Structure prediction request, 303 residues.
Amino acid sequence: MEIDNYRNFLAIVEAGSMTAASEYIHIAQPALSKQVKSLENYFGTKLIITTRGSKHLILTDAGRILYHKAKYICSLEDMAKNEIGDVSDGSKGTLRFTVANSRAAVFIKECLEPFHRLFPLINYEIHEGGITEQSQQLLSGIAELGILSVPPIHQNNFDVLFRRKEKIVCVTAENSIFLKGTTTPTLPELAECPLCLSTGCHLMMSKIFAEKSIRPQVLSICTTRTTALCWAEDDCGVSIVPMEPKEKLPEGLIAKAITGVDTDLYKTVVRVKGRPLSVVAKKFLQFYSDVRDSERMIKIKDL
Prediction:
């Protein structure tokens, strides 16, 4: 099957209709329809459902599978073109990351900015999302490396390259009305406060509270850590979020360790298991190994 068929199939799905895709990629609509029919004949199943009078198409289950696989196939060709052009020293190319929600700013400041100073001709694609989105972005080839705050969906599909332990902490405003006079609050003390948790922390803390038969007051569950911290900034509640060693909080906030909470929570750098890495990705991982205080799980030379 010609790769242009896959690229045009992606264009149809992402444009939402044959008509819109035809205008975008400048290929006549009958020719696009013929390519879709060719794909359906090749795979022996219906990929797209179109309804009379509707401007939008519907993907079948098979169509959704092909969409993600076509993303990966096309990304491989793009990667090959880039690598072949830059294979001499790996000083040019594109690094594609998926980064956990609200962690991109720290990642850029601590890792990408110093790496960019060393290799100014390398450019970046940074996708942010929750763990479900991140897993899909990695598997589909949209991203080559993942910076995760919680374990990926279908862990057996991924290699953990580095990991760095994080702690779950509670965060308050400096002169907060909550948790006065305590530097390491207990679970019962926390349960008396309105709690604002990031999604990953909520899943873990719910189990911890349940094991102690404690029913906390949950004010807010937030997709990102940044949003959870907003409640503490306004002193409307106590935020519970993951935090790296030596990480700095926004001005006006203080972090407190929680008595009796010691979880195996790690920020990890992952790739899809067995998938070859680009030259620039290997160069970045060597840099990351040299400058970040993270536990290396796989030898760089073995990647």
In short: The longest helix spans residues 61-86. The mean pLDDT is 87. The chain has three domains: 3-68, 89-164+266-302, 166-263.
